[in-house]
Protein: MaoC-like domain-containing protein
Amino acid sequence: MFSSHQSLKRKTPCPGINREEFIEHLVEEYYTTTNVEAQEQVTANLANFAYDPINWEYLKKKEAAQLFLELLRSNNDRLKLHGIAGLSNISLDHEISLHLSNSVNFKIIQELLLNSQNTEILLNCCTIIYQLLNNQQGERGDILSRDTVKRIQHINSQYKNNKRLANISELLLLDFCRRYEFTEEPANSSFFKICLSTTPAAQQKPIKLVKIFSQQDLDNFSRLTGDPNPIHSNSIPEESRMVHGAFLNAIIAGLIGTHFPPGTIVLEQSFKFPKPCRINVECEFLIRTQNERKISTVTYECKQGDNVVFEGLAKLLISNNKLGK
Structure:
């Protein structure tokens, strides 16, 4: 999708096109022409250039990013669209991301989000907000103001038939607005405030289960899985017997299935077994949520006394229902 310097060199015919000079020419043409159609064509080209990271340094050097911001103040919807699309494309650049998270600059984007009815403009506004939050640029409370969250909620409910807009607004709500709630105060006032949960996901109470594995448990699991390994059987001394690693993972899967919303699925896992897990010894299973997003990360472990016998990490695709407790 993106170009490398080597591939550009191969694709560009001799004597070639100097991209930096061409971008500079486009910016100059926008400011010097009085023809609106020419301005629309120029800004569309600049927004397309912003799609490829190889052009970002040129665009910054020639102040095209600042031009994109200026376009958001235009009365011309096409110019607004080209401006917000260009910013959306280039907002993954760290320097630009910091620039956009500045309260003055972000206010321009926020005003466009609140006032525009153009679905493509709204899509790009939501994309920028998601990328700023995902890259942890700026204060979350400044970006997710009361009006911004309410607007995203409205977009999510109003544009269900627009899959792209519905998806990005839903991701924003699930990934970053889950712990925001609206409360009225005083009782007879329509004033709303946004309250952020005082308990981040990583600090919430872990899911806990205490279990003792018996030989009967191991025999049943061996029959179910067809695993005849004698280290799980009573053919060896009890102190040498080991609980199946897959059995430990199955317990974690059961906890996920019963404590997260119905329909939640495991996307990927990584785990290890630092110590053997013995039978007839108390095991403590713990699952901790690291973040509450559409795709959430959880860590888990199983301990016998002070020994960690099983630990890992999983990414879960959370269903649309509220997270279980």
About this structure: Confidence is low (pLDDT under 50) at residues 179-203. Residues 156 and 166 are 5 Å apart (CA to CA). The two ends are 42 Å apart (CA to CA).
